[in-house]
């Protein structure tokens, strides 16, 4: 497993790591025993970094990670997130009292003394501009409660603002073949400032696996059903902001990327890893098979300069205009 430095945090993490939203909930039914087997398989294959949040299954993902990483705390790094248990637009949500309590709660569920990376979970830009939350995180860092902190952002504008904050050491961004906007400015700026980049939704909620058809249906408790048009949270978190049917149509036009790379899943992840500014991709999973499929990217060859140009043109000419919401 190739590893890359997580900005200037001092951590070096597997370039293919995993997000744990799906094993907590909001992606359909889960099986805890299978989730634990999948986590064990990932670690067996060299994965040493997992991303979670306090709201994933109301703490369920954090508790599963505690069980899976017991005895491996010094080797397996965990990033978690906070703020979405409260009103994300209310400044009081980011008070020292609230943030400290959420931090302590996550530490307890994860059964750890220090959080490797603590991230603000997609806050509004107006909150970030107030600045108080960064002061709180600085204090928790000085106390040793957190090793480093970062921000999970929805838009490039938010990401660029966060790069101006001296304490921010990592950004979690939406970046995939359907969301290429970060390439122009965010990626080079982050690299220049030594800020690590975690890529969430690398497969656009599964669209870039190439397995969906316009007739595909999702379980009622799956956000790909209940948030398809942004009914519950930011529309960009589901199918990268694309209308589902349009996303299926566009994905079918990308089937060529799988040639010589196994399948579209591996090719889509490989494209992301071609960018040296990226620290790691964090696809989701619900079972061992999905972990193994994602890890297959290790055998996928990089894209040529001509292929990268073709994919840039595809995004500009056929994808960009269909993305909904700020990004």
From TrEMBL:
<dbReference type="InterPro" id="IPR036812">
    <property type="entry name" value="NAD(P)_OxRdtase_dom_sf"/>
</dbReference>
<dbReference type="Pfam" id="PF00248">
    <property type="entry name" value="Aldo_ket_red"/>
</dbReference>
<dbReference type="InterPro" id="IPR020471">
    <property type="entry name" value="AKR"/>
</dbReference>
<protein>
    <submittedName>
        <fullName>Aldo/keto reductase</fullName>
    </submittedName>
</protein>
<dbReference type="InterPro" id="IPR023210">
    <property type="entry name" value="NADP_OxRdtase_dom"/>
</dbReference>
<dbReference type="GO" id="GO:0016491">
    <property type="term" value="F:oxidoreductase activity"/>
</dbReference>
<dbReference type="InterPro" id="IPR053135">
    <property type="entry name" value="AKR2_Oxidoreductase"/>
</dbReference>
<feature type="domain" description="NADP-dependent oxidoreductase">
    <location>
        <begin position="16"/>
        <end position="315"/>
    </location>
</feature>
